[in-house]
Structure formats: C-alpha cells, structure tokens
Amino acid sequence: MDRSTEIELIEELLGLHAQKAPFLDEQWTREPLERYSSPEIFAREREHIAATLPQIAAHSSALPAPDSYVTTEIAGRSILLTRDREGSAHAFLNVCRHRGATLVRGQKGCQLRFSCPYHGWTYSNTGDLVGVPHQKTGFPDLDRAALGLVAVPCQEYAGWIWLSLDTNCDIDIKAHLGALAGDMLAMRADEHQIFASDVRDINANWKILVEGGLEAYHFRVAHADSIAGLFPDNLSSYRCYGRHIRSILPRNTINSQADMPQDQWRIRDHANILYSLFPGSQFLVQSDHFIWIRGIPLGPDRTRLELTTLVPTTQNTEARRDYWRKNHEFTLLTLDEDFQFAEEIQSGLASGANAHLNFGRFEGALARFNRYVDDAIA
C-alpha cells in the first residue's frame, strides 16, 4: 500500500482503539443457509467464478527453471503449468487430445516433452503435438497443429502465475487487481521462497472458510489458547477494491504508534494485513513474511486448502530455519482452530436450529464478500 494509505489506516485504528469502539457498518445482516449447502448454488459458483475469473495457480518458484512443470487443480479440472526454454510460463488443460486421458500424472518435475501414459501421444512443453505412434496407418490425414494441448489464458505477474479457464478471454491481472495491484507488487513475492506448505481437506463450504478470516469478533473466544492475547478484542477494519478485500487486524502494540512520529509508523509491525483476492486466495501478511491460503472448492461442503509460508529469499537460511518453522507451525495451530469451527458450522446447517446466519455490524466484510459472490453468479 502507498504511504498515505498506511498512515490513514494507522490513524483510523488508533482512533478506534482509543475510543474502545469497533469498526462498524450501518446495519447487521442475515444470510440464507442454502448458500453454504446447495448443490445448485455450488455448481453456479464453479461455472461463473472458479471456471471464469482469474486466480493464482502457483507461486513463480513452482517453475524454478526452463522445462520445469507442475500440475494443479482448478474448478475440477487438472491443469498443467510449464516453463519453456525462453522462461515463459504456460498453462494447459492436463488432458491428452487423443482419447482424453490425463497427460501428466506427476505433481512436478523437469521435462521438455510429455507422453500420454495411455497411447504415447507426445507434446512439447509449449503444448505442440510432436509425436503420434503409428500416425501414418492410424491417422493418415491428422493435422498435428490442430490437436495441440488446450491452452488456458496465463500470465506471470507480481511473483505469481495466474490463469483463467475462460479460453475466450484475454487475461489482464493488473486490471483484475485494480487498486490493489500496487499492494501485490509491494509484497515482493518474487523475492520470497516457499518455506513450507501443508494441505487440509475441510468438510465445509469455501465461503465459510473465507468468512472466518474477515473479522476479529471471534479472536477473544475462539483463539483463547493461541492468539487472543496478542490482539485487542473485536478490533479490525476493512476496505473493498472491486471484489477484493483488504482487512487490517491490529495487534495490541498498535497503540505504541501514538507516541512515535508518523515517519516511523509501519503497519506490518503492529498489525496483520489480510488480502482476500476474489475468488480463491488470501494472503496473511505479517511483519517479516506472509502466508498464502489457497482455497480449492471441491463440493458444497468440502474445500481443499493449501497453506503456504513464504519467507524472504535472503533470510531463508539455516540460521533462521527454526524461527520460520515455529512461525509456520503456529499459523497452522491457529488456522486449525478456525477450521474446526467451520466444520461445526457446516454440520449445524442441517440441524434445524437456524433459519439463517447472522452477521453483526462489526462483521460487515462478510456480508460484502457474499454480495460479490451473488453478483458473480447472478
């Protein structure tokens, strides 16, 4: 964020802290239960959000060198990401054009060419069909140029590899991020390395998991044994940028800024900054590193989360290893507390106890997020 915004946010938080007042929206809202459980709504979300909008598929370091590749999943589709000899990133549907078998079964590696494990049709890492066994006898008039891998729009930006499954549209990540493009560049993800990554399969709707990070109302109670003592009770603020949200979760030390000159103010030293990039990624930015939370919706009540700690490349040293490991483990401990509540909420939807869920005035970011989902699938 730019310096004027940083000062504005610190001033806002200092004012709220001094008044012992939360950041409030005009009214509280009710949300229908079916948005978290309906197969029909989930199908529309997959079609109009996950399979259409640009989203992050991998950190640039997942393709560390020419001829490297990695596979991933988006909207139920297997995706092959490659880096060619010139260093450019590509994204393809991981499907052979012969009979539709999965082309690459491995998760990552280094290959110039990929041969289908079913019949051996072979493709270059730029997607060209370069080999067809028995082509002269079996496919005498086959046009290889017409049967290359199906490419999906892909762009490398701000240290990340982005793609969209909408093959009819160009991808413009700077435009997609809008006013948050500067914040993403300022994170300097291209100067960070993946320290550790874990996967969780959660029995909860993807939106419940996003909502869990958008408010501090639960900190004092839900995280009583972990982070509650580090944060003021129910103090946070947020701003919306298009469909993206930047939340500020101040720590108890934020009040120390009041006694310092403004030119020494630094929000990352006294608050966690959470970027919720619509639809699939959240970034929890802390003082010296950040965590990437990637959500992969699997069903109305199932979500896969990839939880990745990224640290500055210059500090990813043996001497700092124990420090980064403890940070990663503490993050997992805290998030696992949230995930347990998410699964309990999902389970309780069918109990008959509630006709809707309630979002308070200090939970306004949750309602805004759900309006963005509604608009996208309308």
Automatic annotation (TrEMBL):
What's the cofactor?
Fe cation
What protein is this chain from? Ring-hydroxylating oxygenase subunit alpha
The record's annotation in SUPFAM superfamilies points to:
Bet v1-like, ISP domain
Q: Looking at the record's lineage, which domain of life comes first?
A: Bacteria
Any one GO MF term held by the record is: iron ion binding
Where the record annotates domain Rieske, the positions are 54-163
Q: Which organism is it from?
A: Halioglobus maricola
Q: Name one Pfam family in it.
A: Ring_hydroxyl_A
Keywords from the named record: 2Fe-2S, Iron, Iron-sulfur, Metal-binding, Oxidoreductase
Name the InterPro entries for this protein: Rieske_2Fe-2S, Rieske_2Fe-2S_sf, Ring_hydroxy_dOase_asu_C_dom, Rng_hydr_dOase-A
Q: Which PROSITE patterns match?
A: RIESKE
